[in-house]
Amino acid sequence: MLKKSLDLLRAEAAETGANTLKRSLNGVSLIAIGIGVIIGAGLFSLTGIAAANNAGPAVTLSFVVAAVGCAFSALCYAEFAALVPVSGSAYTYSYATMGELFAWIIGWDLVLEYSVGAATVAISWSQYLIKFLGKYGLHIPARLVMSPFESAKLADGSTVSGFVNVPAMLIVLAITAIVTRGTKGSAWFNALVVALKVAVVLVFIALGWQYIDPANYQPYIPANTGTFGEFGLSGILRGAGVIFFVFIGFDIVATMAQETKNPQRNMPVGILGSLAVCTVLFVLFGHVLTGLANYTEFKNNAAPVAVAIEKTPYAWLSSAVILAILVGYTSVILVDLLGQSRVFFSMSKDGLLPPVFSRLHPRFNTPAQSTLLLGSFIALFAGFVPISVVGEMTSIGTLLAFVMVCLGVMMMRRTNPDAPRSFRTPWVPVVPILGIVVCLVMMASLPWETWLRLLVWLALGLAIYYGYGRKHSKLRLAQEGG
Fold this sequence. Notes:
Blueprint: H1 6-13, H2 27-38, H3 42-55, H4 59-83, H5 90-97, H6 100-134, E1 151-153, E2 159-161, H7 166-180, H8 183-209, H9 232-243, H10 263-292, H11 304-309, H12 317-349, H13 368-384, H14 393-415, H15 430-444, H16 448-472, H17 474-481
Antiparallel strand pairs: 1-2
Subcellular location: Membrane
Membrane topology: Multi-pass membrane protein
Transmembrane segments: 30-52, 58-80, 101-125, 160-180, 187-212, 232-257, 269-293, 313-339, 371-390, 396-413, 425-444, 450-468
């Protein structure tokens, strides 16, 4: 239960020298990083699902409700990121408020979030690449786009088993190479990718707006069927729960604190700015989607955007959307790799993981060895493990981190009430408590198998902590030496 003092954390943030991360990010870069991971394929699929099954055209209100729920946690992240501008995100915040054991749990939990998330996205990226290439008559042998545990039926009726998912592995390794070379270069690449996929979303909104049929908005809030969550006001709330996970990702911005110029100002800008920009885009996207086609047409349809595009004369938009998904997934993988390596960097600096994870490249000033190790592991995972195994593990890991950060803000306000804060979460403890409640409700809605996988992962993490981390903890060794 040893805790890091606020003074010690600030001293770490002020460190300079060969083994410190280079500050090269500004507020715009952080907003782009946040948007890069928030806008993924979920926007193009979950919006239609929530509209068809829960909220109807009022899915736009579901986006607002989900954004408000995320904002509770985002405000808490913003206060911590400005107060303690070091890499590590929720891991570091937990170390300062709840102690080393809880810090390890949340750090290990973040590893689950980022690594499994990156592998999952890489596998989906591979599937969308096949669709995109297929539109132009280009085909990759089926054995090279599946794991050994998967099989597929070919056009001639025969069945073929997978060997390895080559595209998934290659995209992870390519992004790993970019991340290894430096945060500034990664930020530029991410900014380009974000610009491309935001452009596609804006094009869909702008072109689709002209063909909106106002009759599709009647009724805007369909009458409840008698079952909670099926339309009416309860449907808006259930729809918010469905699309809540579209917003997950702004927390990764907090892992960039030690590589940010003037983090006291820019970290809140990056965290809250990315959430605000995405909320506006998502509401407009949902408005156009449900205006082009009646929400009932999205029922049991995995590609609702394709249904909406059929209502316009722009058939090429379908290819553009797939391209946007590919580009969007690329930036998600990049940001996940950035976030994971920075969490490992902080844990290694504290002695809880071997020194290799905090060793910086002499030229790039990045944890290059750590990034290469993690990237290689994730590439193998993406190449040889089927996507069905990972499920919703990413979501539960993120929500647990949110709960810890919201709880940490309340504890820090009590233990260090006079610490100078360039950004303060408003209405404490109301906002943090609301953040905790929203996250716990979302966690409770996940399947029990997801909880079981989380518990198994945490058990493995505790074994590593007691076998290595606790014995090598620099904070513990310093206190025992004193």
